[in-house]
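User: Teach me something about this protein's shape.
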Amino acid sequence: MTLSDLPLHASALVESVRELHANDAIARRLQELGFVKGEDVRLVARGPIGGEPLLVQVGFTRFALRLAEAARIEVSAQAPGAAA
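Assistant: First, the predicted structure itself:
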C-alpha cells in the first residue's frame, strides 16, 4: 500500500520510498524529511479539492505532500492497538 492509499487518521510504518530513476531528487528529499523504513507515519488530513494536498505526520513533524509524492512512499498498516 502507498501513503496516498492510507485511510484518513490511520497510522502505518514506512517500508520504502520508490525511486523512479538514479539520483531521484524527490525520493532523496522525502527520505531526508524522515520517510525512512520503520518510521511511523499518520495521515492527518486531506485537502478539500481532489483530496490534495495530504497532511501527514512523521514523528512530531507534519508535512503537506502532493498525491504523486505520497504515492511513492510504500507503507504497511499497523495492527489495531499497536503503539503509536
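Now, about its shape. The longest strand covers residues 40-49. Helices lie at 25-32, 67-70. If you'd like, I can walk through any region in more detail.
User: That's plenty for now, thanks!
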